[in-house]
Give the backbone structure.
Amino acid sequence: MSYIQSSARNFLKLAAVSQTNANATVRCLSTLKNVSGEREDCKVLILGGGAGGCALAAKLSSKYGEGKVVVLEPADKHYYQPMFTLIGGGMKNLSQSYKTMASVLPKKAKWYQESAVNLDPKNNTVTTSNGRNIKYDLLLVATGLQLNYNKIPGLEDALSIPDGKVGSIYSPKYVDRVYESLRIFQKGNAIFTFPSSPVKCPGAPQKILYIAEHYFRKMNKRNDANVVYNTALPVLFGVKHYADALWPIVKSRNITVNLRRNLIEVKGDKNIAVFENLDKPGEIYEEQYEMLHAVPPMSAPDAITQCKELVNEAGFVDVDKSTMQHTIYKNVFAIGDSSGSPNSKTAASAAAQSPVVFRNIVATLEGKELKSTYDGYASCPLVTGYNSCILAEFDYNLNPLETFPFPQNKERYTMFIMKKDFMPALYWHLMLTGMWNGPALMRNLMSVFKFGKK
Ligand code: UQ1
């Protein structure tokens, strides 16, 4: 690690040291005791202890004090998911990507290690997997997404075959298999997919593609590899400014891109992936793979999609895209991937949403007008290999909304270092403690230097 990288890390650690100490304490765990039928009231109930849930639990519990905020989160580990592409490429280890949930949730919030099983927004009540009924003044849905590997016949079986040919960076269960598939690859098709559902970090299926292609070059296997990206989308990337930079990259690196091609089955015993052409119903292709990187279809968790009053047609929480407040139930908000706001689903989006959601929750609880608005900011550090990255940043209108004073639609080593070494520290020490509100402030400060930038 360079001096600059370690200094940045130390600075961020110092900035958040008090918060981190406060986090390392024992909290309320309820898994051992059955609490069926028990009633409980709280001011704010947060569903989910991911990036958005943690950030808002920190902000809200620090404002309202001990015990006023309840978090429902069944997992005992909190993963820094943006690291998964780097783990797939062998640049980081899985053990570097998580902390215990107990250490990242704020001490002043009450954590139940249970999930929400029934939501009743008319009666302001949520029932948990342990039979607890929680009545809230305000509900924040921050559950993130559910990975539906089971929706593609044969995929889960293929992901359990010990030949290591099929992997997936989206799950901690399968991410190590991705690097294994790169290492054992000898000759043939390396196929990368993108499903026909909204996904979190829509750039990630492409990042692992570029990392793999670079890996094959580094290991002198590139001439024996046919690298193919089969995406269900009609475009390579949704924002033209960056798509225009990515097409020359795939062309110069001899990567085949097939648009509107959707993975529908995996025959793991024969190493065959089956795709459909979404533009020509009924047209099916079978492709032999030597390695397959599969991205599962995703949705909000079942407990959310089953609550029809809360979700939109696509099954995500139906919020106003500016205020993040539910369109009907004014004491319900959403943050992050489970929200129906039409932004790209990334940790950076949740960061930019967090001050808006916080201010608007406080305003709602005080009976005041909502004044804070989210502009759809999303950011995607498109890692294009072992030392380069294009930092895409854009808003609801898919217009670039860039932080740095130099053109960002180019591959850069500095952006790669930011993604690999700086962002994890920022995430653990500032984002989860509620102190990182996205880069808007930084962008405004940097704009002074943007002479000549389009
Ligand atoms: C960001 O805010 C964020 O959330 C914490 C990320 O996820 C880990 C990111 O990858 C990026 C790039 C941002 C935006 C931050 C800057 C400094 C541009």
Notes: The pocket of ubiquinone-1 is lined by residues 82, 347-348, 351, 379, 381, 403, 423, 426-427, 431, 436, 438-439, 442 (CB under 6 Å). The radius of gyration is 22 Å.
